[in-house]
């Protein structure tokens, strides 16, 4: 049981950037907008967060805010093209990813030799003293706790509030929402910017906390995994959180396999998290009725009043 503590604790940390990016994309897609630029927004957030933390010396907290602002700026660029100008959403998202990869590499070349102190885990009084579970759940950095709070807020808004109902209504039928007087473009803009901010926080967490150093293309496909998790979750926050931790657990297990001396190529072990995600998506995709029941009807379709 003691050997499971670092594995489970590491699973929560490894799944945290996916929770942020996935929740942001889920809210965006709920309004009928599909943004395939999550990878690019995470990279822009990662380099902006690292640069802010390194230059100002204000630590990971400032880096996360800078990452959120940078991700929101990238999402605004996407929104202008895809929403105001009604360009193809898939093409705009792919272009944003390519732009993010190049921009982050250009800015980040000055920070290759830098490292940051990161964040120390927070021990929640009394709860962290619980045997086994205390070290797993209540001995984490504050961003892990923040991701759980973000999940709770997104779930509550979508399931229990008028705003959540409005977001889903816009995703199902923007024409009907516009006909009764709701500002469809403004709502989609807000959801898209929220998705960009969440993706930026996820990227900044990678560069300032999880691995507090800058490496080119350090997001390593997590943006694409976040998009896939939205489909895996059938646009439901709870299932998305479960999928993020599943990916995080497989990521941690690859390092444990190396430590245990399992004789497998390093490249194969590194591919295990992505292979597991593909297998899960294939299994989920076989049930087309569930996908069709939860898929926003206007997903990917442009709307101009």
Distance between the termini: 59 Å
Shape: globular
Percent of residues in helical segments? over 70%
The CATH class name reads: Mainly Alpha
Order of helices and strands: HHHHEHEHHHHHHHH
Q: Which radius of gyration do the C-alpha atoms yield?
A: 19 Å
The CATH topology is: ABC transporter involved in vitamin B12 uptake, BtuC
Taking the sheet with the most strands, its summary is: 2 strands, antiparallel
Strand line-up in the sheet with most strands? 1-2
Structural class comes to mainly alpha
Keywords: Cell membrane, Membrane, Transmembrane, Transmembrane helix
Pfam family, one: BPD_transp_2
Main location: membrane
Organism: Aquirhabdus parva
Descriptive account of the structure:
By secondary structure, the chain is mainly α. It has a single domain, classed as ABC transporter involved in vitamin B12 uptake, BtuC. Helices cover 72% and strands 1% of the residues. The chain has a two-stranded antiparallel ribbon with strand order 1-2. It is globular, with a radius of gyration of 19 Å. The model has no long low-confidence stretch (mean pLDDT 90).
């Amino acid at each position: 049981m003691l050997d499971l503590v670092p594995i489970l604790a590491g699973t929560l940390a490894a799944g945290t950037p996916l929770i942020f990016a996935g929740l942001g994309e889920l809210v965006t897609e709920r309004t009928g907008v599909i943004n395939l630029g999550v990878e690019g927004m995470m990279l822009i957030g990662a380099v902006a967060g690292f640069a802010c933390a390194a230059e100002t010396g204000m630590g990971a907290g400032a880096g996360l805010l800078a990452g959120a602002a940078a991700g929101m700026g990238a999402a605004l660029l996407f929104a202008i093209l895809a929403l105001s100008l009604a360009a193809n959403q898939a093409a705009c998202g792919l272009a944003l990813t390519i732009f993010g990869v190049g921009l982050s590499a250009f800015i980040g070349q000055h920070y290759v030799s830098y490292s940051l102190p990161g964040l120390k885990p927070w021990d929640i009084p009394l709860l962290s003293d619980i045997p086994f579970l205390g070290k797993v759940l209540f001995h984490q950095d504050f961003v892990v706790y923040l991701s759980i709070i973000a999940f709770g807020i997104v779930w509550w808004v979508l399931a229990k509030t008028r705003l959540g109902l409005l977001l889903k209504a816009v995703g199902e039928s923007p024409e009907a929402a516009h006909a009764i007087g709701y500002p469809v473009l403004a709502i989609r803009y807000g959801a898209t910017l929220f998705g960009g901010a969440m993706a930026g926080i996820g990227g900044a967490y990678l560069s300032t906390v999880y691995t507090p150093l800058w490496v080119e293309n350090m997001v390593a496909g997590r943006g694409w995994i976040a998009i896939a998790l939205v489909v895996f979750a059938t646009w439901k926050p709870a299932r998305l959180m479960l999928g993020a931790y599943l990916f995080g657990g497989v990521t941690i297990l690859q390092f444990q396999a190396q430590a245990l001396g399992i004789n497998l190529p390093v490249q194969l072990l590194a591919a295990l998290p992505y292979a597991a995600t593909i297998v899960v998506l294939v299994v989920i995709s076989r049930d087309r009725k569930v996908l069709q029941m939860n898929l926003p009807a206007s997903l990917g379709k442009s709307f101009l009043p």
